[in-house]
Amino acid sequence: MPFDNPTGDRARRQPRFGKAAQRQATQGAPARAHPKVNGSAEQKHQQWLARAGDAERSGDSVEAETCRQHAEHWFRVAHGRNDP
């Protein structure tokens, strides 16, 4: 049967949404949470560029690209161009 319940007679589990599901999905994965960057838009732009350089030097090209995208956002905010 394609819909066998391997847990026996227990009811089928409902999908979990929200923070509990996110924690469960990311357990064992490295945390990539960005700490808050304070300052003006220009300062945030510079700080994200610095983080991108740090990530690049550490060999994390994905994190570096993420930081560059954040920096680009703050560049557009600083210069009044918030178009995608």
From TrEMBL:
Q: Source organism's superkingdom?
A: Bacteria
Where do the record's region annotations for Disordered lie? 1-65
Q: Which intervals hold domain DUF4167?
A: 27-79
Entries under Pfam families matching the protein = DUF4167
Q: Which UniProt keywords apply?
A: Plasmid
Q: Where is the composition biased (Basic and acidic residues)?
A: 53-65
Instruction: Name the chain's protein.
Output: DUF4167 domain-containing protein
